[in-house]
Amino acid sequence: MIATSPDVLVNTLSAVAHLTRRGLYDRAADEAKALARRYPRDPRPWAELAHALVAAGRREQGLHAIKRFERLSPNTPASLNLTGRLYSLADLPARALPFFRRAAEAQPQNGRYVYDLAAAQRMTGAIDLAQKTVQRAIDLDPSNTEALWVRSDLRQATPQQNNIEDLERRLSPALAPEAEVFIRYALVRECEEAGEWARAFSHLERGAALRRQGRSYSVGRDVAGLEALRRHQNRGAVAAAGPGSNDPRPIFVVGLPRTGTTLVERVLSGHPKVRSIGESWAFDRTLLDLARAAGLDSAEGTLARGGLGLSMVELGDGYCAAASYGMAPKLRWVDKQPRNYLNIAMIRAALPRAGLVLVDRSPMDACWAIYKTLFRGDSYQFSADLIDLAEYYAAWRRLTNHWLDAFGETMVHVRYEALVQTFSEEARRLTAGCGLDWTPSCLAFHKSPTPSSTASAVQIRRPVYTSSVGLWRRYAAQLEPLAERLRALGVEVD
Description:
Blueprint lengths: L6 H15 L3 H14 L4 H13 L3 H14 L4 H13 L3 H14 L4 H13 L3 H14 L4 H10 L9 H7 L6 H17 L3 H16 L6 H14 L2 H6 L9 E5 L6 H9 L4 E3 L5 H12 L6 H7 L5 H12 L8 E4 L8 H7 L4 E6 L2 H9 L14 H22 L4 E4 H6 L1 H11 L46 H9 L6
Parallel strand pairs: 1-3, 1-4, 2-3, 4-5
């Protein structure tokens, strides 16, 4: 952006970006801060700093860096698009949208800019507009297979109207694995919606195999982490912990992905006294910072053993300060980070007055929904293999049963099947359990303009439906290895 910048700056920026790609976010942020101090009028260090801070879960600091970048950067299509991408990374698609629109309007033939605009339109609920925009992005850049995947998400396929033939024509041995994955998962969605069950599963097997290529994942490590929590964190350990924060505002919605957590979030955030902060990393970030300051290893097993010895009031108050940044002081908020199911004992100790909702779903429907979802990055790596999925699910079930035994009277336990089949009744029970007075707006979740960055961003724009209940039975033969392993691990398969 500043052509005359020294080569050393360019090289160091490249090194910072490499640290961020490797997941070394704190190191990247430190390097970027040093660059920003040395070159205070150059926007590029601020962009790298914003990226590293947001990725590290330091959203408040990241937003300050984004705003600094926005002020310093030239009014070019590239800068506008990058500003939009940074706001999207910070889970603020509504704030990102006008930057993407301006970039795409300035360079309407730039397929990348048009695609980023379509993705933001999808997240902000402009579904019809997003369909047109993403098709334009595909026309401009047919090699953008991520756009093909989004296109399939934006409209339900039918036997008469779908993109199946078009998608299958695009498959070729020359495709890079990561590009093929998007097409395969787009085909899974469209084939299933069109009733092509065997075809859907065939594409899913290939897509999941591609996701597993070259990875070094061991489900045993994840299972060991869940078991450590079950051994070391219980009612007695929470009672023995130091006093927590008295703040009653947070409502945590936890559960495995694709089990109804977003639907629950939308019901709650339909209340006029509640806002959603999306899938926030604020609790983990605050916990890890306290652990580091106390010299406690951040490994899950170590935190399971010693985490409750940290200052619970600092954890609770620190989390609330980070999570409520920019929010009116009396509003409550929903934190829908599914993986906070790992933190239930810590949440109960640090925030004893917070709302806590555990969302559950029948085992085979839950596992099928997880297996067929294309998660981004390193999230939920167990989802790409049926046996890994069974191992993780069984360990998760043991842990959540443990949480319910220890803290069930202070939690709202929601079953997905009950929620969609008796929606009004369950919505009332849910809001009452979170200390909220009833309002009919909680039933109109699909009309809410609130953006969503989750895999359910399109589904939540539709009224509640029950067609996913028992859907796994369409694949009963193909999923028998999963069912058999779950039974062997003590999970009752419906």
